[in-house]
Design a protein that fits this description.
Elements: E1 2-7, E2 12-18, E3 24-27, E4 35-36, E5 39-40, E6 49-50, H1 52-55, H2 57-63, H3 67-74, E7 77-78, H4 81-84, E8 91-93, E9 96-98, H5 100-118, E10 125-132, H6 140-152, E11 157-162, H7 163-174, E12 180-187, E13 192-199, E14 205-213, H8 218-237, H9 250-265, E15 272-276, E16 282-286, H10 291-321, E17 331-335, H11 342-351, E18 356-358, H12 365-375, E19 383-385, E20 392-394, H13 408-413
Parallel strand pairs: 1-10, 10-11, 12-17, 17-18
Antiparallel strand pairs: 1-2, 2-3, 2-4, 5-6, 5-7, 8-9, 12-13, 13-14, 15-16, 19-20
Helix pairs in contact: 2-3, 2-9, 5-6, 7-12, 8-9, 8-10, 10-11
Length: 417
């Protein structure tokens, strides 16, 4: 039976599997590696739309002839699942309130069905590894929701793995790493994680505890850009982007802001033409941001990630001061869509001993690592070495059989949920 890894993201979700050559490869849904993490529940109670089909409803909002039609469409669009999910809360849909487990299960079931039909020629997918950000370790109910939703979606075996650990596994799968220390900088849509792993001459790994920020991601930058535009529209058109006061108009935020952010990240600073609701009755021209304005929007969020990265670099130094096996930072790997921001590269270059590296698998490294993890049964029990005394053992032991201290690598690589 088939096994896959899923990186359930704030903005986009990716899937991967391990091919016959032992390489992790992404599963593309209608040709696209990244699937929007969103659903649309129609007012008539019909079948929910998932991913790209749900995202396309934003264009229907732009074309709607009146505000009531816009409100009806927006009332069926579901986003923010990763950030908002809880057992106490619920998802409001036109057909009634649904639990987060139920809605996420619908999303995962769609991905599972697509992969079974188009990637595995009808073979059933039984096992999945779901990844999660470091911040979920302080929000354990979110990990339980992910696991329950995956079971409800039809997966019989569900394992969980931290996103930065998965990113390291995904990177290792495509690159031969020995006698090197690798730092993973993962700046995604809604969260940030940084991880460090040292590989010895045999490729064995020793890892420091990952560090994360569950409230820092590319979505924060999108919202800051939206607010900048909204202020300019108020000055020039004497109205807000939305028809309602203090409401964020999602089609502009999720489409125009994201696309403009990508352009400016590539140095393309130009005006933006915003079709304001209803039915794009007003086409507002927003002047191009200056480099200084753009840096002012981006920098606060990038600086939060830099502070966490400094914390990890300090952890490496603290480890080295304790007289254990010396750690070094030989590679800094950039993962996640927001890591493409030029400011990220420049600021990391100032604090890291080596220049950061962009890798081709920037968007799918986490899903690749999850696929590697779930596809190798022996990964649950393999040879490792106690970082305290060097005793050879297997990672099934929580404590070293020689010195009795915790098996550092096991505790921080895997999750027991």
């Amino acid at each position: 039976m088939a096994k896959i890894g899923i990186d359930f993201g704030s903005s986009f979700t990716t899937m991967s599997y391990v091919n016959s050559q032992g390489l992790a490869v992404p599963i593309r849904v209608y040709g696209k590696e990244k699937i929007p993490t969103m659903l649309y529940f129609p007012e008539d109670g019909g079948e929910a739309l998932v991913g790209e089909a749900a995202y396309n409803k934003y264009q229907d909002c732009m074309d709607a002839e009146d505000q009531d039609a816009v409100d009806t469409i927006l009332g069926g669009i579901i986003t923010g699942l990763k950030h908002d999910m809880s057992y106490d809360g619920y998802v409001a849909t036109p057909g009634g309130n649904k639990s987060y487990v139920e809605v996420i299960a619908i999303f995962l079931s769609y991905l599972k069905g697509y992969a079974e039909e188009y990637e595995f020629s009808g073979e059933k997918i039984t096992d999945v590894c779901m990844t999660y950000p470091v911040s979920f370790d302080w929000q354990p109910e979110k990990k339980r929701i992910l696991q329950e939703a995956a079971h409800e979606a039809g997966f019989s075996e569900v394992r969980l793995l931290k996103e930065p650990v998965a990113a390291l596994m995904g990177y290792e799968n495509r690159h031969d790493i020995k006698n090197e220390g690798v730092l993973i900088y993962d700046f995604g849509g809604g969260t940030f994680d940084v991880a460090y792993m040292m590989f010895d001459y045999m490729g064995q790994q020793q890892m420091l505890p990952p560090i994360g920020d569950g409230e820092c991601g590319g979505q924060n930058i999108d919202l800051a850009l939206y607010e900048n535009w909204n202020q300019k529209i108020q000055r020039e058109k004497h109205r807000q982007i939305s028809m309602y006061d203090d409401e964020v108009f999602l089609p502009i935020l999720k489409s125009n802001c994201v696309k403009q952010k990508e352009k400016m990240s590539n140095g393309m600073f130009g005006p933006e033409y915003l079709p304001l609701p209803p039915a794009a009755s007003v086409l507002a021209r927003v002047k191009a941001l200056s480099r200084q304005e753009w840096d002012g929007i981006v920098e606060p969020w990038v600086d939060k990630t830099i502070a966490k990265t400094r914390q990890m670099l300090n952890a490496v130094e603290e480890h080295n001061s304790e007289g254990a096996m010396k750690f070094s930072v030989d590679k800094v790997i950039l993962i996640g869509g927001s890591s493409r921001l030029p400011m990220v590269y420049e600021k990391l270059k100032q604090i890291c001993p080596v220049a950061p590296t962009h890798v081709p698998e920037v968007d799918v490294a986490v899903a690749n690592g999850a696929a590697i993890f779930i596809s190798k049964d022996e990964i649950r029990e393999e040879t490792c070495f106690c970082i305290h005394c060097g005793n050879k053992l297997t990672n099934k032991y929580r404590f070293c059989t020689n010195c009795g201290k915790p098996n550092f690598r096991y505790n921080h690589c895997f999750d027991d949920v």
